[in-house]
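not sure who needs this but someone in the group chat was asking about Alpha glucuronidase N-terminal domain-containing protein from Polystyrenella longa so here u go. i didnt clean anything up, its just raw.
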Amino acid sequence: MNRIGKTISFVALLLCSGVQHGRLLAASFNDVMITSTAVDNEVVPRYQAILQSEIQRYSAVPVVIKGKGESIGKVAPHGLVVYLHTSASLAERQIQYDGGIPSERDPGPEGFVLVQNGNETHIIGVDTRGVLYGIGELLRQLEFQKDSIVIPDDLEIRSAPAFEVRGTGVSQGHTITELTGSRKWTPEEWERAVVGYALAGANTFSIGHDANEKSPTYQFIRGLGLKVLLSMNPNSGAPADKPEWEAQEAIGRHGYLCLSVPEAREYKLMIEERRWRDLAPVDYVRLKSGDGGGCECELCRPYGAVYIEMCHDIAEIIHRYQPETEIFVLNQKLDNDGDLAIFKYLREHPEPWLRAIAVGPGSNAMGWMPGRRQDHRMDLFRYPAFGAMDRYYREMLQQMPPQHDLVFFTDITHWVYAQNGLMGHYMLPDRNHNVPPTADHYIYDRKPDRAMYRVYNRRAFNARPEAYYDFFRESERYGIGDVTYSEGNHDHFNNWMWQRLLWAPDVALREIVLEYCQTFFGLEAAPLMVDAIFQFERNMQIPIEKNKGIQEFANLVERAGMKIPKNRLQADWLWRQYQQRAYTDLYIQADVRAQEELLSKIKNLAEEAVSSNETKSKLQEINGLLIAGPQLPKEATDWVKRSHQLGRESDRIYGVQIAGMYNLKQDYVGLGWYTDQIEAASVAKTEEARSILQNMIDYEMKRVDALYDDVGNPDNSPHVTYGWPYDGGFFDKTVKKSQRVCAYTTNEEQGVTLEYKDLDPEAQYVVRMTLARPVYKERYQGFHSQQQESIFADDVPLVENMTLPEFTPRQFEFEIPRQSTVDGKLKLWCQKQDRIGEGDLGDVTVWRNTGGWGTLLSEVWLYKKAE
């Protein structure tokens, strides 16, 4: 009887370093032969081709595949033979393995054993997919040299995935290609991306809305023995000639059906019946509840009740044609009543038509991340356990029948304004005007650097190891896995780490990052790239102007590039992405510093102009500085040049570039506003010019002891007692930084409010206010009729139904009636325009979701009127 000998045993998933880094005995091979005992398996030959391709991508080592019926023959003296087996193929040939043939019990479904001894490598899959995952582990153990590969001499790894569902969607990302002008992927490059995540442990890939057996993408995924997830919306597909069937979608999108209209509901079921007769087999169907989709109309309230019943009916159609397909429903963007309706329906209909509820952006009733969740379970904050990333998932499991699970649909693609992104704004109140307790704010205190936020799109190239590792560990413990949401290849690290964690969630974070870096940059460069990736994440959250980590990140990436072997570097699109990002960040930092330096010089000259008799000459000097513009260091031009060169290279290699280097023209410090002041002063008479300059250099009016509030900035608005930072629509970005942020309220009777005490009862006070209203995307404009607000001092109107200037802020002054300050106190507050934010809840929801405001206020000065 043939045997596969047992070798020295190592702990599974320990990362083996190279000889130079303490690697234990290692062997070098100059050619490779791949063969298999699974000769009747149609999929394993495709795995052989994958292994061959991956080795030859980074090395010139000859790789030969021995197919069915071919004799292995004599192996070259310096050759490696890789044997691919399944447990079934070993049993058929009565081949034993001293370590025990892997099974679904040990190590588990989809698992493998990888044995390396001498010039033989044996990969034994528990099932067919286990062979692919064993190949992934082998590739992670290899060191690629130009004409050879190196592998630990004695190795045994026995491993299986921890989660059943492990996947993502794979695409190049149309937004990134539009922003960068990158070329489109070839079909082979898309396949390579799928293979990359599969080798990391993924078993499921989202294919969008249709399953077609003739589709090359569908054929490729199924041809590798991997699973297919189809996403669909149970209320999509409204015909254009039936406007009476249209849903009231959460942000006003068209093309969705109101399922409370019987004819619309029957139409949708008829369409699905016809469609599923011809669809190719799929493993999972994820039925979306929102973003887009859903209906906010009165008849559909709560939408969760209408939605889950429709999901059940569609599931019955699916199971008529594909009885093995598993159904996931989603509670994305529902409200509390909608969630409770789903739980109630499932308890009342315990049939096994549903496998799991999928949790995605806007699903968490304890989370205020952009999503948007309309209301929240404030009762769960009474004893919140581990907080927003934990408590509601436990609540969902308690509410659901025991035969159903949670599965995740996690957004790991956006670095800002997302389910787990950095918060580019402060928390917004929900429709009940609730915000989370202070103890839960730490999640939302992770803010992006403001300059980076302006340059980089939401889909910017990013890596967030620490934040996403924490999120994974807090949340995924409650589910059966995750098919992540991805919009391109810019989230490569995040997605790859997610697949590895779904395989082995207890591996330490630094080990995962090291494994990633060894896999994609080689053993020598890996330690430097590990430090670079952690520094990269920190840099995104630290104000860039004085952040030494920007240069440190650039140094680490550049040094790592010198240690990547030339045979790897020539094909390494990923390192080029990190280096593009490093150069672009350096440029942003230099530009911010240069603009701040220019602004400082302008202010200094303006002070001299005010305090001397040389006002006009100083203005000429200032104009000269403005014409010359910010003075960046000489290296800045080279950084841009080199980042674009690397972009062309990464585009040629793999059709990817970072978008930020195409969006570098920014006004970070409000130079546009200062330029306007200088232009006005330059044509004014001397005294008027001095007055303009005085206001420019003492903007907060400290010279007259004004009480100043930058109302949209909670850190510099001591008198604001009601209102939240606004995050809707667009304002002029060429104005002063403090002018382009606002505080707002929605449909409350009380608007933005400031309160003062210890005022002089004998003084006459004046208030100056900066006011503006936003412009909107064209598709949102029809939901926003608000233009006016009223402003009160206590109960006395200062101005009623005042139309706010659009887009570009302006300043207005009002005298405060003496009776409002005679007690040494003052309440300044705004009141919304009549009937704004009122009416049907669905209309109000769409209004709120698209940036609706009742009152807006940007800046306030309260000061004594000059005698």
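also The radius of gyration is 31 Å. if thats useful
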